[in-house]
Design brief:
The protein is an alpha+beta fold and about 500 residues long. The chain has three domains: about 5-75 and about 165-240 and about 320-370, FAD/NAD(P)-binding domain (3-Layer(bba) Sandwich), CATH 3.50.50; about 80-160 and about 390-490, FAD/NAD(P)-binding domain (3-Layer(bba) Sandwich), CATH 3.50.50; about 245-320, no CATH class. The protein is about 35% helix and about 20% strand. The strands form five sheets. A seven-stranded mixed beta sheet has the order 5-4-14-15-16-13-17. The longest helix has 27 residues, at about 370-395. The chain is globular, with a radius of gyration of 24 Å. The chain starts with 6 loop residues before the first strand and ends in a 7-residue tail after the last helix.
Length: about 500
C-alpha cells in the first residue's frame, strides 16, 4: 500500500493517547489531520504516576510551562526511588537521579570510593556511596530546588522527575492538543476495517456506525490492543518466567503531611508495594505474583500499609510482563500498554510511551509503504524494552532473601545472559558498561547493584595511581560540599508552596 500520509488516527486516550496527540499536533502544520478516538465509557489504566527525568525532555518538547503543569496535575518532585527490604529484610537504599561524585583522572568515582572504603583508619571514613550524590542527600533531607545550569556548580549534578496524577496529566495534555488542532471523537469502537488485499487498517467503526478513516493508526487502546493485537494479530511475547508478578491492586489515600521528594518501593512476601506522594493524596499499590499469594492477601497488605485513610475501594489490574513481537505492523504503531508492559518498579511506563512517540516522530514515514523505518523502529523499541526488563529483573534476582517461596524463585531463577554478563562484570572489579542508547546510566546501575548488596571482589587497578591520603581528602571535601548544598535548599513542601501549589491540595 503506497501513498502519502494525510490522516493520522490515534485509537484510545489516557496518558498514552494524549501524550501522542500533544506531540503529533505539529503534523497539522504539515497539512495532516490528527484525530483521537476515545470513549468515556471505557476507563483508563494509570500504570504509573511516578516518572523518571526523561519526562522533562518531553514536556519541554511540547512547550509545557513546568509550574503550570505541576499545579494542574497535583504533582510533586521526585529525586529517586527508595527500596525497602529488597536485598534482605531491614535493608533500605535509594536509587537517586543525578550524578554520583566526580571522576578523577579518568578513574570512575565509585572505583575510588571502593578502594578507600576498604582501607583502615581515617582514610576509610568515606561514608555511604550515595553521600556523594546531591539528589540522594536532598531526598533524605526532604529538600528540593531546581538544578543550576552552570557545570561548575554542585547544583548542576541534581536531576529530578515528578509524581503526578496520570488522569490529570492526560486532561492537561488534551487541552494543549485540542487547542493546537487535534480533533477528538467520542465513541466506542465496534469494528476495525482491514483491507483484504494488503492487511492494512483502513478505518475504525464506532458503535454509532460512524466510520473514521486514516492512513496511519496509532494504537493507544491499552491492554485491549484493539488494532495491534485483535485486528492485526501481532503475537505477545511473555517475560513472566523472569518477572512473575502478574497483578496489582491500587488504592489512593489521604496525605499524612508534607510530601516526600521520592517514591518508595517496599518488598513484600510475593511482590512489592508502591507509595507515590502527590500534593493532594498518596498513591498506593501492591504489585504481586498470583502464583504465590491471593488477591485478598495482596489487598490486605496494601491497606495495612496506608499512612492515612483510603479515599476509594481498592481496584485490581491483571497483566503479563512482556512485549509485542513487533510494535509497528503495516500502518499501525502500538504505543503504551498495547505494545508491552513492564511493571512500574523503576517508573518506566510513561518513559516507554515517550520513547515510542519520539522514535516514531524521528522515523515518521513519508508514505504508507515504509519497510525501512518500520524495521528500524521495531529493532530500537524491542532493544529498549529488553534493557529496561533486565534492570527490573536485577532487583528481584540480586537478593539474599529466602523467607518465602516467591523470593526463593527469584533468587535462583536463570536470568537473561544480557543481565548475567553485567552482574559477572560487576562482581569482579566493580565495572559497569552501559548499553549503547541504554536508558539507565552507569550511576543508576551502580546504585542498584550496591543497594542489592552485590559487592565486587576488587576494584579497578587504575585507582592505585591515585594517592590514598589525597583521595581521602578529596572525598571528605566533596561529601561536605554536597551536604552543605543540600542543607541550603528549601524544603520540598516550601518549594512547592512558593512556586507551584495545586488547587487540588487546598
Amino acid at each position: 500500500m503506497t501513498g502519502p500520509i494525510r490522516r493520522v488516527v490515534i485509537v484510545g486516550g489516557g496518558t498514552a493517547g494524549w501524550m501522542t496527540a500533544a506531540a503529533m499536533e505539529r503534523l497539522t502544520d504539515a497539512g495532516m489531520s490528527v484525530t483521537l478516538v476515545e470513549s468515556e465509557e471505557i476507563g483508563t489504566v494509570g500504570v504509573g504516576e511516578a516518572t523518571i527525568p526523561s519526562i522533562l525532555d518531553f514536556n519541554r518538547w511540547i512547550g509545557i510551562d513546568e509550574d503550570a503543569f505541576v499545579r494542574a496535575t497535583g504533582a510533586t518532585f521526585k529525586l529517586g526511588i527508595e527500596f525497602v527490604d529488597w536485598a534482605r529484610k531491614g535493608d533500605r537504599y535509594l536509587h537517586p537521579f543525578g550524578i554520583l561524585g566526580r571522576d578523577v583522572q579518568g578513574v570512575k568515582f565509585h572505583q575510588l570510593w571502593l578502594r578507600q572504603s576498604r582501607l583502615t583508619g581515617a582514610e576509610a571514613d568515606v561514608g555511604a556511596l550515595d553521600d556523594y550524590c546531591l539528589s540522594a542527600v536532598a531526598a533524605r533531607l526532604g529538600r528540593f530546588t531546581r538544578p543550576n545550569a552552570n557545570p561548575a556548580s554542585v547544583l548542576s549534578s541534581l536531576s529530578y522527575a515528578f509524581h503526578f496524577d496520570a488522569s490529570l496529566y492526560a486532561r492537561f495534555l488534551r487541552g494543549i492538543a485540542e487547542e493546537r488542532g487535534v480533533v477528538r471523537r467520542e465513541g466506542r469502537i465496534e469494528r476495525v476495517d482491514i483491507d483484504p488485499e494488503n492487511g492494512f487498517v483502513r478505518a475504525v467503526i464506532l458503535a454509532t456506525g460512524e466510520r473514521i478513516e486514516g492512513d496511519l493508526f496509532i494504537d493507544c487502546s491499552g491492554f485491549r490492543a484493539l488494532l495491534i493485537g485483535d485486528a492485526l494479530g501481532v503475537p505477545y511475547v511473555s517475560w513472566q518466567h523472569w518477572l512473575p508478578c502478574d497483578r496489582a491492586v491500587a488504592v489512593p489515600s489521604t496525605s499524612p503531611g508534607a510530601p516526600l521528594p521520592y517514591t518508595r518501593a517496599s518488598a513484600e512476601d510475593a511482590g512489592w508495594r508502591w507509595r507515590i506522594p502527590l500534593q493532594h493524596r498518596v498513591g498506593n499499590g501492591h504489585v504481586y505474583a498470583s502464583a504465590f499469594t491471593s488477591d485478598e492477601a495482596a489487598a490486605q497488605a496494601v491497606l495495612a500499609g496506608l499512612d492515612g485513610p483510603a479515599l476509594a475501594e481498592p481496584s485490581q489490574l491483571r497483566f503479563t510482563a512482556g512485549v509485542r513481537e513487533r510494535l509497528w505492523e503495516r500502518n499501525c504503531i502500538a504505543i503504551g500498554l498495547s505494545g508491552g508492559f513492564l511493571e512500574p518498579l523503576e517508573s518506566t511506563s510513561i518513559h516507554l510511551i515517550q520513547s515510542g512517540i519520539s522514535r516514531l516522530m524521528a522515523l515518521f514515514p513519508g508514505d504508507m509503504a515504509s519497510p525501512v523505518e518500520q524495521t528500524q523502529y521495531n529493532r530500537l523499541m524491542r532493544t529498549e524494552y529488553e534493557q529496561v526488563r533486565d534492570f527490573i529483573i536485577l532487583h528481584y534476582h540480586a537478593t539474599t532473601r529466602d523467607d518465602s517461596e516467591f523470593w526463593n524463585h527469584c533468587r535462583t531463577m536463570t536470568v537473561p545472559t544480557t543481565l548475567s554478563d553485567k552482574i559477572a562484570l560487576w562482581r569482579g572489579r566493580g565495572r559497569v558498561i552501559r548499553d549503547q542508547g541504554g536508558l539507565f546510566t552507569e550511576d543508576s546501575w551502580i546504585a542498584v547493584l550496591m543497594g542489592q548488596v552485590l559487592q565486587p571482589a576488587s576494584h579497578d587497578p587504575l585507582v592505585e595511581a591515585l594517592p590514598i591520603e589525597g583521595s581521602g581528602n578529596f572525598l571528605r571535601h566533596l561529601r561536605g560540599v554536597i551536604n552543605q548544598t543540600a542543607q541550603a535548599m528549601p524544603t520540598h513542601a516550601d518549594f512547592i508552596a512558593q512556586n507551584c501549589a495545586s488547587p487540588q491540595a487546598a
